[in-house]
Amino acid sequence: MTDVTAHTATDDRGYLTEKGFWSWAATLDHKRIGVMYFYTTFLFFLLGGLLALVVRLELMTPGPSLISDHAFDVLYTMHGNMMIFLFIIPAIPSALGNFFIPMMVGARDVAFPRLNLAGYWIFVAGVIVVLASLVQPMDTGWTFYTPYSAKTGAAVTTISFGIFLVGMSSIVTGLNFIVTIHQLRAPGLTWFRLPLFIWAMYATSIIQVLATPVVGVTFLLLAAERLLGVGFFDPAKGGDPLLFQQFFWFYSHPVVYVMILPAMGIITEIIPVFSRKPIFGYKAIAYSSLSIAFIGFLVWGHHMFVSGMSNTASVIFSFLTFFVAVPTGIKVFNWIATLYRGSIFLDSPMLYALTFIFLFIIGGLTGPFLGALATNVPLHDTYFVVAHFHYTIMGGTVMGYFAGLHYWFPKMTGRMVNEKVAKLAWVFIFIGFNITFFTMFILGLMGMPRRYAEYLPQQQGLNIVATVGSWILAVGVLIMVGNFIRDMFHGAQATANPWHSKTLEWQTASPPATENFEEIPVVTEWPYSYGKKKE
Amino acid sequence: MRRKVIEVSMELFRTPGEAYSNIAGQIDSVFIFITLIGLFFFVITQGCLIYFAFKYRSDKLDPNAETPYITDNRLLETIWIVIPSILILAIFAYGFLVFRDFRTPPAGAEEINVTASQWMYKFKYPDGHTEVNEVRVPVNKPVKFIMTATDVIHGFYLPDFRIKQDILPGAYTTLWVQPKKSGSFIILCTQYCGVGHSTMRARMIVMKQEEYDAWAKHEGGETTGAVSLADKGHEILEQSGCLSCHTEDGTQKLGPTLKGLYGRKTIMSDGSTVVADEDYIKESIFDPAARIVKEFQPIMPTYKGSLKDDDITAIIAYIKTLK
Amino acid sequence: MHDVTETKTHSSGQALETAKLGIWCFLATEVLLFGALFTAYTIFRVSDPQMFLTEHLKLNRIFGAVNTIVLICSSLSVALGIAAIRQGKQRMLRICLILTLVLAATFLGVKYAEYSEHIARGELPGTNNFFSLYYMMTGLHAIHVCGGMAALGTMLVMAYRGKFSAEYNTPVEITGLYWHFVDLVWIYLFPLLYLIG
């Protein structure tokens, strides 16, 4: 394997050299497409976050204060839609996945570069249509349950088409990655020499390809009900509102694994590099990604225990739900085992990686309360659920994303992140996050339902605490973003491999040339041979 | 500030579910069980995580660090697959057992019909009288809510009793409770249903038996000729011509007899078996052609448009009396 | 602008493999897409068999059967076209592509006639769940036929420009695969909607 660590930092801007609007808009370079996805999705992270801040501000009082109840309902609906469909589902796969998968398998690009570009513009079209729905903003919650979503006057039909387009982009990305990983691996790069980020992305892509069409049809049918009077979900026409929920969750449960698996993949890359130890249990982690993807398709009914779904179905879904804990636990134990007797360097990528594990454990351990039938009943549709998914998605995926951004920043930009400021941002983020969301577990236990513009007065104290937490979290995010912006232009120049990682993307210049490698590398060993190998 | 914290803790822990009802107590027990197992894993994993991160930290990223080359450990891996698997199965089992009790209403529970609509709950007692956003029940007696919605999906959540159930339009869902404590308990809507979702609240007032009897005598049955639900159902059956094809005494006529109908296992013309419940009776009245009982002809006309959901509720109540 | 496509795939054999894997992945998504509708079909058929019994008789079986034969023939014609170009027979490929397009257009024409008939009789997507299923399933299928025609049309244009040969005919192959899938979906739709009582 060519080791480029000896190269010094240069002024060569590699894939970033060519300038001009069309060099980006019509690019076939997976790295540029990844960067475009990054900016588009990050925009919605910030917008969605802003909406959340307003929501939390309103929640400082039990009754309406700043905004009307209807406006509040619209805000959290759009917070959810933006965060889920326009940020968290596409972010790691389409931004970091696009940038790094070809490099990590030793290829020059993805299997279908033109399809990749098309996918980006389909995503943008979807974004525009989703935003267009704001002319008649909706308050259905991101779950769009019928009959309310079929009857309401808001622009549900419009957003249905927007989400359909965004889903098509997701499918295109997943399809491209599956074929890339199968067909474009460098010579010598057998399946069990692949970095575990690739295994994670492979599993993610399978879910994207198989689950997304179902939600596409679901939204199509919702639009059909509104436009053509199709009555699958309408009890007055012999339809069943629960059918919508079944179709919706058939996608929306697997999609949370689309959200978490890539982040887990990033963590699995960072931990060995920053502990200077081989990853513990490579095959177990690889197989666990596939198992999580598979089991994830079988458990959607655990969102519907109190929906009116049959008792038998509820029991089966609860039983199956617990199985996903096993492969997830395997990953957590393996990461921690990798730390054992390592040489641990706590720079920002590693700090965020460890934070991921810490917060994801909390989020994950609150899962059984919701998977167990008896305890699901009081906790369903309360703030306990809101806390659970924010711990797993924000404490999990978003922290993993931040870890990946800090880790790969030198590779993507050719510059180093200012560690002092990054760590300062981390302190605010960690503290703010926990104050905001741990409080919500307690609020859920106290019986505060979700999607409540007005709540019982005795719950005000904790709501105020959560809001203050959200400010601290916001400050941290702003510091982090400011740091990234400043470092993009003024950060110290990065060498090719500042973290001395053995995966292929680091065996190139920072930033890499457009064609990635001068010569396609030949791979002779797995990428985790850190430390002292026993002779 | 200090007082607020104490208030919160006491709110949570002062009155355990056990005080409100047996089911609530059982649900709380499952919660504690899961918490203990969760804490066990939490301490081990987070403990190791934080301990290792500190103990093995280095102030530089050393590319030549001589760390031990550990790639697996079969024993450890087996342990941490087997033990969690056993524990989570235990959690599932415990949760399932309590759920089974929760979903099995005791026989002889008093039935109260609930109709949810944007944005209120209407409670209809067996004696026919109706209240909005308030329901009264006697303490220590089981009560079963039979619920439907008129427009969109709503929720019915009794946080003190740890129970909830979604309310669907076009179908019936049920929820039962046997309160051990008298008092006034809030009912919250837990399925987003429009702008009034978070202000759509009701109260369940649990009264001591004597007080309840006194109230029932005063409120129910004697006000403005309110007819019991079952009697109303009988009236509708007579007026709608149902009794020309269906008997009430078990004899055969053009349609299946209504006697013993509720809960009866019926064989359909396509061979399938159906237990006649609220949903089935409603379907038979609004969409009789959907399923035909074996050996009967598909000649029943539909009453969609001429009978309302409330009428169906009354008919069902009456049919239930024809044992 | 540096076109990186050329250096990527190591050989034309691998390029074909890559394209085939891509189209199979895409067909997998299509299976799930139609699968959701087939699931809805199953659910409503089980819950309301009477409705299916009475309503399905309102469909025009002649038109349905004609369309089935038309599509099967179109699958045959595209397969013949691929067999031809594998032997370098460019003219044969063009003829087969034209034939496939004509048959596809016929399919759409018949569907147009069918839909017109139903609409005139007031049998609309919102009439009842059977007709909702009928319109949604055949409608989604028809959209895929249109997409297939666009792909076939593109293949025809490229064929006229002499882009295909015995050595290189990957796009035709994968278009053919897609077209067979579209045919296959119809072969399920026809009996489920038109024939079964």
Any idea what the CATH architecture of one domain in chain C is?
Up-down Bundle
Report the oligomer: heterotrimer
Write the CATH fold name of one domain in chain C. Four Helix Bundle (Hemerythrin (Met), subunit A)
E-strand count of chain B: 13
Distance between the termini of chain B: 61 Å
Largest sheet of chain C: none
Share of residues in strands of chain B: 15-25%
What's the count of strands of chain C? 0
What is the helix content of chain B?
25-40%
Overall geometric form of chain B:
elongated
Mean pLDDT of chain B: 88
Q: Report the CATH C-level class of the largest domain in chain B.
A: Mainly Beta
**Topology order of chain C in helix (H) and strand (E) letters:** HHHHHHH
Unreliable sequence segments of chain C: 1-9
CATH superfamily of the largest domain in chain B: Cupredoxins -  blue copper proteins
Number of helices of chain B: 7
Mean pLDDT of chain C: 92
What is the count of distinct domains of chain B? 2
Report the radius of gyration of chain C as a whole number of Å.
19 Å
Low-confidence stretches of chain B: none
Describe the structure concisely.
The complex is a heterotrimer of chains A (535), B (323) and C (197). With 323 residues, chain B is an alpha+beta fold.
Q: What does it look like?
A:
The complex is a heterotrimer of chains A (535), B (323) and C (197). Chain A is built from 18 helices and one strand. By secondary structure, chain A is mainly α. Chain A has a single domain (33-507), classed as Cytochrome c oxidase-like, subunit I domain (Cytochrome C Oxidase, Chain A, Up-down Bundle), CATH 1.20.210. Chain B is 37% helix and 20% strand. Chain B has seven helices and 13 strands. In chain B, helix 2 runs antiparallel to helix 3. Chain C is built from seven helices and no strands. In chain C, 37% of the residues are buried. Chains in contact: A-B, A-C, B-C. The interface between A and B is large, with 98 and 89 residues.
Task: Produce the secondary structure layout.
The complex is a heterotrimer of chains A (535), B (323) and C (197).
Chain A: H1 21-25, H2 30-58, H3 69-104, H4 113-132, H5 148-151, H6 156-183, H7 196-228, H8 241-252, H9 254-275, H10 282-296, H11 311-323, H12 325-339, E1 344-345, H13 348-365, H14 367-371, H15 373-379, H16 383-413, H17 419-445, H18 460-490
Helix pairs in contact in A: 2-3, 2-4, 2-18, 3-6, 3-7, 3-9, 3-16, 4-6, 6-7, 7-8, 7-9, 7-10, 9-10, 9-12, 9-13, 9-16, 10-12, 13-16, 13-17, 16-17, 17-18
Chain B: H1 2-13, H2 22-55, E1 57-58, H3 74-102, E2 110-117, E3 120-124, E4 130-132, E5 134-138, E6 143-149, E7 154-158, E8 163-167, E9 173-177, E10 183-188, E11 201-207, H4 209-219, H5 229-239, E12 265-267, E13 273-275, H6 278-286, H7 309-321
Parallel strand pairs in B: 2-6, 5-11
Antiparallel strand pairs in B: 2-3, 3-4, 6-9, 7-8, 10-11, 12-13
Chain C: H1 5-8, H2 12-47, H3 49-56, H4 61-86, H5 90-120, H6 129-160, H7 170-195
Helix pairs in contact in C: 2-3, 2-6, 2-7, 4-5, 4-7, 5-6, 6-7
